[in-house]
TrEMBL record:
Keywords: Endoplasmic reticulum, Glycoprotein, GPI-anchor biosynthesis, Membrane, Transmembrane, Transmembrane helix. Required for proper folding and/or the stability of a subset of proteins in the endoplasmic reticulum. Component of glycosylphosphatidylinositol-mannosyltransferase 1 which transfers the first of the 4 mannoses in the GPI-anchor precursors during GPI-anchor biosynthesis. Probably acts by stabilizing the mannosyltransferase GPI14. The chain crosses the membrane at residues 477-499. Pfam families: PIG-X. It is found in: Endoplasmic reticulum membrane. Its main location: endoplasmic reticulum. One of its GO terms (molecular function) is mannosyltransferase activity. It comes from Tothia fuscella. This is Protein PBN1. GO terms for cellular component: endoplasmic reticulum membrane; glycosylphosphatidylinositol-mannosyltransferase I complex. Belongs to the PIGX family. Pathway: Glycolipid biosynthesis; glycosylphosphatidylinositol-anchor biosynthesis.
Amino acid sequence: MKERITYIIRNPKLGFEPSNLEVAKASISVSSLDGAKEHRITLALAEVPQELVRVLKNCHELHIRWATSREHDSIAPYVSRVTPGLHVFYTPLREKATKRLCSLIQKLFGSYLKCVSTENILINFWSAFTTPPNISGRFSHSASRQYFQPLESTDNLVAYIGQTTCSEHNYECKLRVHDLLTADYIDGDYDSISHAVNLRAYWSQSHLTDKLWWETHHIPANGSLEVGVLINETPDEEEELRYSGFLTQVGDDDKPSPTLFSFPARHHPLPQSSTFKASFRIPSGLHPTYSVQLPADSLTPPSRDCYLHSYLTLPSPLFIDKYPLSDPLFLASHNLKALHSISGATDLEAPDWVTDAWGSAVLFEIVTPPSAKESLEVTIPTHLRYLSPIDSRTAQGLRSLLIPYPSVFWACNAELGSQFSTSPFDRTNLGYDGLFGPKTVFYYFNPSGPVNGSGLANFLDVPVLDLNRTGAGMVEWGTVFVILVGTAWVCWSLMGDFVSWGKGGREKEIGNKSD
């Protein structure tokens, strides 16, 4: 087991005092630190529970991304964002997908998640997963299968990790696992080349009352521990990130070692004022309009070769009709420039209860106004599928859908000489990054939640049939009655035509004989 814990100081101007790091023979203590934290753990397959190993051995690559719907800050280099919820990106080792993956997803994150484990014989992969398009080049640098579900809490995952990794009386282990409940995002990665499992969690700040980190970290048994405290510095090149600070290899170093380094980065922050809000227009109806608002002072691109994009992951009850979006005039009326990618459940007529796929993923390019003097509202026309009826005395004929915020970013072409070598801070398989070329740099807008505190997601109330309401049974039997009456009328009409045809034929035959 290898552990790497990295702190990024929130305010570079204040710096950091090395005296706040206390190094011991097998531990290190951090005190009064204001900043973000990433905790990364690398495991060999022998250190992973066997039920997970059985699934991983059938995977060429597996990437799990979970992001909270709580509003939070992003500090470089941890600025990349996925839409709030659970994302799974997966490439099978063989053409035939393992049948255990859906069961594992439901065990780790909740049995209520929509994940159909029935294999589709015709296309040879689960209908719960979708296949993202490869539009960035001949060879895709992202996984071949995609899955998403809105998920507000990681209670199930935290309980599973605690049960499988912490002994009954290891309270320190249980406390560290419990801290995952406050993480802003959690990642899990595996590939069949390295045969290693990488886990990492990110916190934008401490959740103690004073918002400061006060922690002691110990070297794991048969493992290593590295702790870094880094400060963002001004880089020499626009596409680079530069850091100074202190690194400590616990068990080998007697004191923190100063460090200074820089590297080309794909993911960059925008100023804190570069925010956006997303909501559904009221009333929503059965064809809701999704609105994304961007303030005027955030519409200046980082460089000339940058294009504004929005990436949405829509659960199966909500979908986008791609056919009108091929019309440039229709796109322009919504402040959209192009629909670059849409994949997943796009059947216009299918109700939700026959749609096995998780939903659809959509990438739009947004119109960039010539002058950033006014705020910009982007509207995205969506449609609702017919949903299953409810049987509840409190829902009042409404089913509530949780629709996550989109990701909004500038996608910029890097300089010709830029080389994006893999760094410990790089984050890939985000859903949209595979839709761009390998030399694309992303600059992220900061999502701003509504004043009512519902987080980075919108609740959409959809009218459905309520089986408990008076008249629901009458509608059911009335429908059956109308169908029977209609069928009887059609049969009667056909029988009348048949009798008339037969009578006319006999009269004609008699007339011929008399002649």
